[in-house]
Amino acid sequence: MTKADVKTQFEKISDKAETATDKVKAAGQKTRDQLESEVASAREKVTAKADQLKGKTDAARDKASSQWLEVRDKWQAHVVEVRTDLKKKKAKHNAKEAVRDADMAEAYAADAIDFALDAIDNAEVAALDAVYLRANADALNA
């Protein structure tokens, strides 16, 4: 991957975050049924992306950091567990349980956002490191 490729890939982070921000802001104006449909669609996309990422990382497993792969695998397992739990709780109709479930979902969202912010920090370091190492290699080969 070239320096330009790394920069282009990194720019996708802010684009993706902006799109997600717009969707979350707009969600406040939608009905519960509309939100349910959008959540299902978003989950399908995330699952497909996770499968795609797993395929890429499995192919590059020998080159990639085993610690990062372990974190990714644990995170994906956690996501599946929380989603399964949320689906079960979605069927409940008790108001107190619904509030508790909403609180748990909000806490999970906060954790996922924190994880994403940390992942962005790590992506920044990795991208800067890649750009630096490419520049270093070019300088040594000149």
Describe this structure as you would to a colleague.
- The chain has one domain (3-141).
- Helix 3 packs antiparallel against helix 4 (95-141).
- The longest helix has 47 residues, at 95-141.
- It has helices at residues 3-27, 32-59, 66-90, 95-141.
- The protein is elongated, with a radius of gyration of 19 Å.
- It has four helices and no strands.
- The chain is mostly helical.
The largest sheet is: none
Proportion of strand residues: under 5%
Gap between N and C termini, in Å?
19 Å
Residue runs with pLDDT of under 50 for 5 or more positions: none
Mean pLDDT, to the nearest integer, reads 81
Q: How many beta-strand runs?
A: 0
Based on helices, strands and strand pairing, what is the structural class? Answer: mainly alpha
Summarize the structure.
This protein is mostly helical and 142 residues long. The chain has 4 helices and no strands. The chain has one domain.
What characteristics describe this protein?
142 residues, mainly alpha, 4 helices, 88% helix
Write the layout of secondary structure elements.
Blueprint: H1 3-27, H2 32-59, H3 66-90, H4 95-141
Helix pairs in contact: 1-4, 3-4
